[in-house]
Amino acid sequence: MKFVQIKAPKKKKIALVAHDNMKPVLSKWCATHLLELKNQELFATGTTASKITNDTGLSVSPLLSGPMGGDQQIGAKIAERSLDMLIFFWDPLASMPHDPDVKALLRIAAVWNIPVACNPSSADYLISSPLMQQENEYRVPDYTAYQQARE
Q: Which residues are listed for substrate binding in this entry (predicted)?
């Protein structure tokens, strides 16, 4: 597989996702990092978007609920390179009927090399990185080269 370098913009497009038990934790995390997040473009699945907006006043573009297709919407945005980061507070101790969707979302984030935080500690590291305040280059699969190799 060949790769190309692309630039993440200064203003990041961030997806916010949380399982039911983790929605209050994500909302609290957003409130703690309000100043950093208000300068970014935010997307969130289902009720997570409503909760964050109601609790923090942040502007969040809502998508479908995760199990109803929101996870796939985020995955598509990642593959289209229209998301720069995924903050996904998942509950590792609860069984999820849509677990395959969750695994697919994490996989596509890894394929397209975007930063992912799955808990508040890793999200703290991402949001406090100097790269959050500037353009930065990163490597992604060169899909054009991949398609040509398949022909």
A: 19, 23, 45-48, 65-66, 98
Task: Show which residues are catalytic.
Answer: 71
Q: What residue numbers bound the domain in which 56 lies?
A: 3-150
Overall domain count for the chain: 1
The CATH number for 85's domain is 3.40.50.1380
- Specify the DSSP element, H or E, that contains 75: helix 70-79
- State the Cα torsion 63-68-73-74 to the nearest 10°: 80
Annotated binding site, which residues?
Answer: 19, 23, 45-48, 65-66, 98
Q: pTM for this one?
A: 0.91
Report CA-CA distances (Å) from 143 to 97, 123, 140.
32, 29, 9
First to last CA, the chain: 14
Token pair belonging to 75: 């995955």
| pLDDT profile of the chain (151 residues), mean per 10 | 90 95 96 97 95 97 90 94 95 74 90 96 97 93 78 72
